Amino acid sequence: MKRFEEKVVIVTGAGSGLGQAATLQLAEEGAKLVLVDLNETGLKETEEKVLAISPEAEVLLITANVADENAVKHFVDATLEKFGKIDGFFNNAGIEGKQNLTEDFGIEEFRKVVSINLNGVFYGMKYVLKVMKEQGSGSIVNTASVGGIRGVGNQSGYAASKHGVVGLTRNSAIEYGQYGVSIKAIAPGAIMTPMVEGSLRQMGGDNWEEVGKEFVKPNPMRRFGKPEEVGYLVAFLLSNQADFINGVVVPIDGGQSYKY
Question: Which Pfam family would be a valid example here (predicted)?
């Protein structure tokens, strides 16, 4: 039996990157999927890939901005209306934002990054946890970052928001373990996603690929991670095999976090 057969999983940020990679792994393992993203084109692309893997897969697409509390409540309600339960939640949607020194970091830019990366994660937890508490079961994986467990220069908004995700994860794990709900976070390092490519382009312009080669030199594995490698981890952490793993932040960064 596949690990996610008859399981219902919500994935935010499902239209690209880590969200798409995790979705494809979950589809391969039999999940019923609710895919959320602001990018409708990306959502449809992910759905096409899911159906190529599993033609009989049940998929609900919802275009939503996770920074909008009402939109988050809507996708949770829509999930319950269609499937009647929520077994797993990959609370993943996020942005990096512009790079700048803290003193030059724009106030509106800071608010935007925090609104999506931290407020959006909180809204998702708020409404999904209520459902899982009533069920007496469920698993949540939040996307933090290595920038949530150590500093990253020129990214005040991103680092602050991802540190907040780590705090929410640990705090809620203490609160909801007694109800059969496990809550974890992942802390990806340099994974070659569209967001990371965008960051490299901010730093290097047309020479972003050369910047990338320099960027991974401090990494013990000397390479970028692959989105599917994160997808495998997320699927495990959402599965019943990881029910007793609670309140942890799992780095997936080739060992870079432990080098300093």
Answer: adh_short_C2
- Which tokens sit at 73? 């409540």
70-116 pLDDT tens trace: 999 999 999 999 999 999 999 999 998 988 999 999 999 999 999 99
Instruction: Choose the catalytic residue: 158, 179, 232, 258.
Output: 158
Query: pTM of the prediction?
Result: 0.93
The span from the CA of 66 to the CA of 58, in Å, is 22
Q: Domains of the chain, with CATH numbers? A: 8-189+226-253 (3.40.50.720), 191-224 (no CATH)
Q: Where are the alpha helices (DSSP H) in the chain?
A: 17-28, 40-53, 69-83, 107-114, 120-135, 156-176, 194-204, 208-215, 227-238
* Token pair for 55: 């033609």
260 catalytic per annotation: no
